[in-house]
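Dear colleagues,

As part of the handover before I leave the project, I'm documenting each prediction I ran so the next person doesn't have to rerun anything. This entry is a single chain, and its sequence is reproduced below.
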Amino acid sequence: MKIWKYNDNINTDMLFPGKYTYTCNTAEEIKPHILEDLDSSFAKNVEKGDIIIAGKNFGCGSSREQPVIGLKAVGIKAVIAESFARIFYRSAINQGLILIESPDAVRAYSKGDKIKLDIDNGKIIIDDKTFTFPKLPSEIVAIRNAGGLLDYTKSKLKNKIKN
């Protein structure tokens, strides 16, 4: 697992360049361009289970869903930031991407520190320091486990039809 550290105000164009908005429609088309203007090594070197740590206002900018789709498609386990843009936060829930707001953990992290993330129990452990965050609501956990809001809704409808 790698940790990718970025600063404040990482906007949606930095996460996924707007010039691809109408030409990349699937997760597979989005993946090679994720963070290309911010960190050209990201798409080539990211691995499933990696974590992004960032400053304030992560995901600010437009309401495009490609940045979240791309982060989820490359296997990002979670984004830990000081704060998130509201529209980006909602889009992440819809796609089942875990966002954790923890300013203290972000400020405590230094390159090379070991991180253990216990999402279910609301803990971030950086070296020997533990930072807590509120446990995710059961609905968000269910959406994440289903793979996103669309799959969650489909499964709920199937269960309703069966009964």
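The chain has one domain: 3-162. The mean pLDDT is 94.

All the best with the project,
I.
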